[in-house]
Amino acid sequence: MAHSDEVKAQVMAALLSGDGVSEVARKLNLPKTTVHRIKSEISSEKLEQVQTEKRERIDDLLLDTMSANLSALSRIARASSEPSYIKTQPAESVAVLYREVASTTIRLLEAASAAGIGEAEVSEAD
After folding, report:
1. Which domain holds residue 76?
2. Pick from 21, 63, 75, 96: most CB atoms within 10 A?
3. Is the model's pLDDT at 5 over the cut of 90?
4. Residue 24: which region, alpha, beta or left (left: phi > 0; alpha: psi -120 to 50)?
């Protein structure tokens, strides 16, 4: 079934903004096959560019979230290491907090290592 130029334009605009086929089909109440057919009319270079931009946006959001979480973890670690704080807390609570901070730190270091983050090149003079 042929669709109007307006519908095709809506589908293309949604796809080029980063929406997936299923999402576009649901939003516009169209069969997925129709959306796939219209998608096939878009150049592969343009679709690759959209996917790259989408991944970059996700990467930026992840980095922002990780940065905020690391800052919060750092503030928690500093505040909870103050003698005035430790003296007012049950020993078990302090132990649980430190175990969680240590566990989170280890998981972050493992993830960073797996992603190659923080690896500096070592020169032969070192």
Report:
1. 62-114
2. 21
3. no
4. alpha
